[in-house]
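Figure 3 (text version): structure tokens given as input.
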């Protein structure tokens, strides 16, 4: 009995320590939101572009290889955004008319079976929305103007992320070695071991989640194009971005696609898009994640769900995105250190 209590107490205090560390990390993340986002994006960029820069460095100087890898990535991203912007601008006039008719179809659908809403209720709702927009025009304009400050903030974050990526890709390993050399002698080997495990897990997770997100985006884009749903490319891009939040990101993005399909093509096509949510969820959960995420640490779905929700509560959207890779990294470091038996491998 005493042995059982001692074992339970040992695990309890470890769990409490991990909980305090995670909470403190996300609290700090929330306070230094912009810096944390920039560093995280810099690490993601390093995980994605470091292999390409290493290959290019075999045939050209490393600074040139880093510049080529970064510029190639920037050109690719800007090219995709330009293509999507051109498609949206080209479809704008038709979309306005199509959505106008679509809203009329939705209203007619709500007035019929099985909802049978009173037309006066819908008219009153439309009138209230118009009155709200008119009475809060000043506040809405103020928010729109504050969006300019937000744009400057976003540009600053991306500039800092690019700056971090340049140095991480060019000499991140040397920076890590310098950091380890500042530690006490007896801790250096274990810190190096944990750092290697952490980076291996982070790069594996990053490559895996990008592949999963790209696969989801391609499937969604092809399905929406086949169904004739407008804004297929922007919705596919939204699916790509949303897939970085495991479990809940893809359903939210596809729900928006279902609303667009309902407004533009009617309830039948919207029902097909809703069925698409189920199909892609099954493919992602039972095929892509088990196969692709085997590169990194595979976490139980309950752990993933708790991590995402806890991260979102602590630090919003950023916390939801960072939570799963953070837990994966911590678990991989724990496993790597446990395999050494708590001793310094250099002394064994």
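Below: residues designed for each position.
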């Amino acid at each position: 009995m005493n042995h059982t209590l001692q074992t339970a107490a040992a695990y309890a205090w470890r769990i409490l320590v991990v909980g305090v560390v995670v909470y403190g990390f996300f609290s700090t993340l929330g306070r230094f939101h912009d810096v944390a986002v920039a560093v995280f994006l810099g690490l993601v960029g390093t995980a994605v572009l470091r292999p390409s820069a290493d290959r290019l460095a075999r045939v050209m100087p490393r600074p040139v290889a880093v510049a080529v890898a970064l510029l190639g990535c920037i050109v690719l991203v800007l090219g995709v955004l330009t293509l999507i912007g051109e498609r949206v601008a080209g479809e704008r006039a038709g979309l306005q008319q199509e959505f106008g008719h679509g809203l009329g179809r939705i209203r007619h659908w709500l007035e019929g079976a099985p909802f049978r809403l009173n037309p006066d209720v819908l008219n009153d709702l439309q009138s209230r929305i118009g009155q709200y927009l008119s009475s809060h025009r000043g506040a809405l304009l103020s928010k729109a103007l504050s969006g300019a400050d937000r744009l400057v903030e976003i540009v600053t974050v991306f500039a800092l992320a690019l700056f971090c990526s340049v140095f991480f890709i060019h000499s991140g390993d040397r920076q890590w070695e310098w950091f380890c050399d500042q530690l006490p002698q007896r801790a250096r080997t274990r810190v190096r071991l944990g750092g290697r495990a952490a980076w291996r897990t982070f790069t594996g997770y990053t490559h895996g989640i990008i592949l999963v997100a790209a696969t989801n985006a391609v499937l969604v884009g092809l399905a929406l194009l086949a169904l004739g749903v407008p804004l297929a490319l922007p919705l596919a891009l939204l699916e790509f971005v949303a897939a970085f939040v495991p479990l809940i990101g893809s359903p939210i993005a596809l729900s928006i696609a279902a609303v667009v399909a309902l407004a533009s093509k009617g309830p039948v096509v919207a029902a097909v898009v809703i069925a698409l949510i189920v199909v892609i969820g099954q493919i992602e959960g039972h095929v892509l994640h088990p196969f692709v995420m085997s590169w990194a640490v595979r976490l139980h779905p309950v752990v993933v769900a708790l991590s995402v929700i806890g991260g979102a509560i602590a630090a919003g959207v950023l916390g939801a995105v960072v939570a799963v890779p953070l837990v994966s990294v911590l678990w991989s470091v724990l496993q790597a250190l446990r395999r050494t038996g708590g001793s310094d491998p250099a002394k064994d």
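The CA atoms of residues 66 and 170 lie 6 Å apart.
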